[in-house]
């Protein structure tokens, strides 16, 4: 797998296909493997790039340098290194925060913005956000990362027929470096776009699951603030929609890319 030096760290990535660029950004505590069901589908018609964000997968795990802003600068330098002038950036969960920040700070790099079960203000999610920050940090400190990985994976893939997906995600999650995971999480929960969301004029698709831990209404609210956005809701899906409903997700993204 190729590795690029950016921003004093190394980013591990995979690239497939030719054409317009789709850059895929994974969720917290996971890796580019989040996109295993998208890469073969989209690489027939696009250049698909999936990378491991800092602190994740096979990329560098710094001791202290974390946060959405740093990850965004990594992505910008990554695109520069590959001489990519424009891309459709697709961000899932934490990757959605990075995609949002990229659209706000470096809009000239984006053809389209795709936000998947994420939000523009992790630091302003009300009770859901406060509960998530408190419960997850407490769980980490008292029970450890392996137990947290088991809990998260079960909540994402609780059905009997999803046991393989659950086990695969749990394996990815528990293989995280504890310090990298902890710092990625707390800095993510401190990040928010605030009023900058109103300045994002990039054509945007927001994908929401009907059973995500934040309700569809949460996504509807911020879609209203985006000048050029549409919302697509995927039924019978939880947080990991790109994994638990890949066909439905791929179809919605394809329609958006085709301007249908």
Write the layout of secondary structure elements.
Blueprint: E1 3-6, E2 9-16, E3 21-25, H1 39-42, E4 47-51, H2 68-81, E5 87-92, H3 94-105, E6 110-116, H4 127-143, H5 145-156, H6 163-174, H7 178-188, E7 204-209, H8 216-225, E8 229-234, H9 241-244, H10 246-257
Parallel strand pairs: 3-4, 3-5, 5-6, 6-7, 7-8
Antiparallel strand pairs: 1-2, 2-4
Low-confidence stretches: none
Distance between the termini: 35 Å
For the record, the CATH architecture stands as: 3-Layer(aba) Sandwich
Alpha plus pi helix count:
10
CATH superfamily: Alpha/Beta hydrolase fold, catalytic domain
Radius of gyration: 17 Å
Which class do the helix and strand fractions yield? alpha/beta
Task: Report the sheet-strand fraction.
Answer: 15-25%
Q: What is the class in the CATH system?
A: Alpha Beta
- Looking at the structure, the CATH topology is Rossmann fold
| Total domain modules | 1
> Biggest β-sheet: count, sense, barrel?
8 strands, mixed
Shape: globular
Helicity level, as a percent range? 40-55%
- Across the major sheet, the strand order is 1-2-4-3-5-6-7-8
**Helix/strand order, N-terminal first:** EEEHEHEHEHHHHEHEHH
- The overall strand count is 8
Protein name: Alpha/beta hydrolase
Domain AB hydrolase-1: 21-241
Keywords: Hydrolase
Pfam families: Abhydrolase_1 (PF00561)
